[in-house]
Amino acid sequence: MPDLTVPELLELDRRHVWHPYGPMPGRQEPLVVAAASGVRLKLAGGSGELVDGMSSWWSAIHGYNHPVLNEAAREQLGRMSHVMFGGLTHEPAVRLAKLLVDMSPDGLEHVFLADSGSVSVEVAVKMCLQYWRSLGRASKQRLLTWRGGYHGDTWQPMSVCDPEGGMHELWSGMLPRQVFVGPPPAAYEESYTQELRAAIARHADELAAVIVEPVVQGAGGMRFHSPAYLRVLREACDAHDVLLVFDEIATGFGRTGALFAAGHAAVTPDVMCVGKALTGGYLTMAATLCTTRVAEGISRGEVPVLAHGPTFMGNPLAASVACASIELLLGQDWLSEVKRIEAGLREGLAPAAELPGVTDVRVLGAIGVVQLDHAVDMKAATEAAVREGVWLRPFRDLIYTMPPYVTGDVDVARIARAVCAAAREG
Ligand SMILES: *Cc1c(COP(=O)(O)O)cnc(C)c1O
Known about the structure:
By secondary structure, this protein is of the alpha/beta class. The protein is 37% helix and 17% strand. The chain has helices at 6-16, 55-58, 67-79, 91-103, 117-134, 155-160, 190-203, 228-239, 292-299, 316-330, 334-349, 378-387, 409-425; strands spanning 33-37, 40-43, 49-52, 108-114, 142-146, 179-181, 207-212, 216-217, 223-224, 243-247, 271-274, 286-291, 358-364, 367-372, 390-391, 398-401. The chain has a seven-stranded mixed sheet with strand order 4-12-11-10-7-5-6, with helices on both faces. The longest helix has 18 residues, at 117-134. Bound molecules: pyridoxal-5'-phosphate (PLP). Pyridoxal-5'-phosphate binds next to α5. Pyridoxal-5'-phosphate (PLP) is lined by residues 116-118, 121, 150-152, 213, 218-219, 247, 249-250, 275-276, 286.
């Protein structure tokens, strides 16, 4: 097929290609990206460049076309891009597992490599249900979570996404019915901890696990909460024989100012999911980590194996890039970079608080959020950001950014200006 012109490409895209949460045929024209380098997306057809304020949905923490990650991919490509993981193993997967065990909260010892965040959540839920089944307590099969969460788009994850205002309302009658408590308040409130404790106690006999996004709820509403709630969950889960799952798919790898958000509270969950930034945004891969207690529990059961095994499990190419991305992260003063971006966003987003229609401006780590009192006009907001030379993807009533950690101060200021412009016009 010869190279497509931009209009040809857009017409084929509209007619044939689904986009995330998109209609068919497509209604809003996407921008065509020809290449990306550093923090810049280069648009096709000479339409210029945009500073990326989204890190491609939290993932491209080191920016695009990074020489170290490119080299890791190239080198691995010369060996093998993939082999099956059943009966075979390889250094990239083993090294990655060891890196994850070493850097994650103490006690997480075993790693299941999955091919996307949603699948890693499915695996986490399967681990928890199977753990209790193995121990002869098969009635423990529900999950408890707080409202405002997002855990992915496959079946089990959908069942623990916020049931209202989210994207999965259509299926509410068909999904497993989980236990929901109110959304976590930003600050520590004793009355909310009572609500958490009481709900866990009341449902303990039927609960396999509590699953939450620690400290930052991402796609469910970009809300932040006190890390002290994580300790409350840990204590209540221990007291009532319930497992605790942290979904760190968005928060992992430094984004909130701790390597994992669990670190803000020094809490170890029984099961933890990571994804998104795992490969520095290069390839799809996620992982589910668990403690020895969970692994041994499963192994004592009537079916003593974890019956899950994706075709592309442990993909060597993705694992190699993930190792390189983690080493790149840990080999630098990543915390100073995240703090620098946090300071830049705080300063740059402050003027948004004065705008009509803005109800809240919040910043934590390398995450900046402006909340409106109305649904964002996506087209107007996106165009306003693009005029400032920045790529943003608002949703619901939220205009937000989580830039790559390599974003320089001038570009952070520019992203903040774009968020303000989008808030003004969206
Ligand atoms: C993105 C996300 C997921 C889903 O990951 P996918 O790779 O998109 O399947 C799950 N949980 C959280 C917290 C996420 O941010």
